[in-house]
Protein backbone atom coordinates (compact mmCIF):
# COMPACT_ATOMS: atom_id res chain seq x y z
CA UNK A 1 0.00 0.00 0.00
CA UNK A 2 2.82 2.44 0.83
CA UNK A 3 4.42 1.82 -2.54
CA UNK A 4 1.22 2.79 -4.36
CA UNK A 5 0.72 5.85 -2.17
CA UNK A 6 4.37 6.85 -2.67
CA UNK A 7 4.02 6.55 -6.47
CA UNK A 8 0.90 8.71 -6.43
CA UNK A 9 2.57 11.19 -4.08
CA UNK A 10 5.56 11.53 -6.43
CA UNK A 11 3.29 12.07 -9.43
CA UNK A 12 1.11 14.62 -7.66
CA UNK A 13 4.12 16.45 -6.19
CA UNK A 14 5.45 16.96 -9.72
CA UNK A 15 2.22 18.46 -11.03
CA UNK A 16 0.56 20.17 -8.05
CA UNK A 17 1.25 23.04 -5.73
CA UNK A 18 3.14 21.85 -2.62
CA UNK A 19 0.26 23.19 -0.49
CA UNK A 20 -2.46 21.39 -2.46
CA UNK A 21 -4.91 19.94 0.07
CA UNK A 22 -5.27 16.61 -1.75
CA UNK A 23 -1.49 16.24 -1.83
CA UNK A 24 -1.30 16.99 1.89
CA UNK A 25 -4.07 14.50 2.61
CA UNK A 26 -2.22 11.87 0.62
CA UNK A 27 1.00 12.62 2.50
CA UNK A 28 -0.85 12.27 5.79
CA UNK A 29 -2.07 8.80 4.76
CA UNK A 30 1.41 7.92 3.54
CA UNK A 31 2.87 8.99 6.89
CA UNK A 32 0.45 6.67 8.70
CA UNK A 33 1.40 3.86 6.35
CA UNK A 34 5.13 4.36 6.88
CA UNK A 35 4.65 4.38 10.65
CA UNK A 36 2.55 1.19 10.58
CA UNK A 37 5.11 -0.48 8.31
CA UNK A 38 7.95 0.49 10.66
CA UNK A 39 9.63 2.62 7.97
CA UNK A 40 10.80 5.38 10.30
CA UNK A 41 13.16 7.18 7.91
CA UNK A 42 10.47 7.41 5.22
CA UNK A 43 8.00 8.53 7.88
CA UNK A 44 10.40 11.30 8.97
CA UNK A 45 10.80 12.60 5.40
CA UNK A 46 7.04 12.60 4.89
CA UNK A 47 6.38 14.23 8.25
CA UNK A 48 8.97 16.93 7.53
CA UNK A 49 7.15 17.75 4.27
CA UNK A 50 3.87 18.04 6.18
CA UNK A 51 5.39 20.28 8.86
CA UNK A 52 6.86 22.54 6.18
CA UNK A 53 3.45 22.84 4.49
CA UNK A 54 1.63 23.42 7.78
CA UNK A 55 3.98 26.29 8.62
CA UNK A 56 3.03 27.86 5.28
CA UNK A 57 -0.72 27.24 5.59
CA UNK A 58 -1.59 27.76 9.23
CA UNK A 59 -0.96 30.68 11.58
CA UNK A 60 1.76 30.35 14.22
CA UNK A 61 0.85 28.08 17.13
CA UNK A 62 -1.79 26.15 15.19
CA UNK A 63 -2.63 22.85 16.95
CA UNK A 64 -2.19 20.76 13.79
CA UNK A 65 1.34 22.05 13.41
CA UNK A 66 1.99 21.22 17.06
CA UNK A 67 0.66 17.69 16.67
CA UNK A 68 2.73 17.11 13.53
CA UNK A 69 5.87 18.39 15.28
CA UNK A 70 5.10 16.01 18.16
CA UNK A 71 5.01 13.11 15.70
CA UNK A 72 8.17 14.27 13.95
CA UNK A 73 10.13 14.67 17.19
CA UNK A 74 9.00 11.27 18.42
CA UNK A 75 10.08 9.62 15.16
CA UNK A 76 13.44 11.36 15.31
CA UNK A 77 14.00 10.12 18.86
CA UNK A 78 13.15 6.60 17.77
CA UNK A 79 15.69 6.88 14.93
CA UNK A 80 18.50 7.97 17.24
CA UNK A 81 18.47 11.71 16.60
CA UNK A 82 17.80 13.11 20.09
CA UNK A 83 19.03 16.62 19.28
CA UNK A 84 16.66 17.22 16.37
CA UNK A 85 13.91 15.25 18.09
CA UNK A 86 14.17 17.40 21.21
CA UNK A 87 14.16 20.57 19.09
CA UNK A 88 10.90 19.58 17.41
CA UNK A 89 9.36 18.33 20.65
CA UNK A 90 10.13 21.65 22.35
CA UNK A 91 8.50 23.49 19.46
CA UNK A 92 5.47 21.16 19.71
CA UNK A 93 5.29 21.74 23.45
CA UNK A 94 5.31 25.52 23.02
CA UNK A 95 2.33 25.24 20.68
CA UNK A 96 0.38 22.54 22.51
CA UNK A 97 0.91 24.26 25.86
CA UNK A 98 -1.16 27.12 24.42
CA UNK A 99 -3.75 25.05 22.55
CA UNK A 100 -4.22 22.14 24.97
CA UNK A 101 -3.23 23.58 28.35
CA UNK A 102 -0.21 23.32 30.59
CA UNK A 103 -1.35 20.16 32.39
CA UNK A 104 -2.94 18.30 29.50
CA UNK A 105 -2.02 14.68 28.82
CA UNK A 106 -0.57 15.86 25.50
CA UNK A 107 1.89 18.21 27.18
CA UNK A 108 2.69 15.60 29.85
CA UNK A 109 3.51 13.13 27.07
CA UNK A 110 5.82 15.67 25.49
CA UNK A 111 7.57 16.21 28.82
CA UNK A 112 8.19 12.47 29.09
CA UNK A 113 9.64 12.33 25.58
CA UNK A 114 11.85 15.34 26.29
CA UNK A 115 13.24 13.53 29.33
CA UNK A 116 14.07 10.59 27.07
CA UNK A 117 15.89 12.94 24.70
CA UNK A 118 18.30 14.21 27.36
CA UNK A 119 21.78 12.73 27.25
CA UNK A 120 22.63 10.37 30.09
In short, what is this structure?
This protein has 120 residues and is an all-alpha fold.
SSE arrangement:
Blueprint: H1 2-15, H2 21-37, H3 40-57, H4 63-78, H5 82-100, H6 105-117
Helix pairs in contact: 1-2, 2-3, 3-4, 4-5, 5-6
Order of helices and strands: HHHHHH
Question: How many extended strands?
Answer: 0
Instruction: Indicate the percent of residues in helices.
Output: over 70%
Principal-axes geometry comes out as: globular
Number of helices: 6
Give the helix/strand class.
mainly alpha
Low-pLDDT runs = none
Structural features, described:
With 120 residues, the chain is an all-alpha fold. The protein contains six helices and no strands. The protein has helices at residues 2-15, 21-37, 40-57, 63-78, 82-100, 105-117. Helix 5 (82-100) runs antiparallel to helix 6. It is globular, with a radius of gyration of 15 Å. The chain starts with a helix and ends with a helix. The mean pLDDT is 92.
Defining key terms:
single chain, mainly alpha, 120 residues, 81% helix
Amino acid sequence: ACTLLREREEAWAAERDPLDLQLLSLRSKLLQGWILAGEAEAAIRTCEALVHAYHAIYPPNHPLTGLQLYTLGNLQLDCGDPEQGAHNLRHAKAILHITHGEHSSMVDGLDNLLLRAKPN
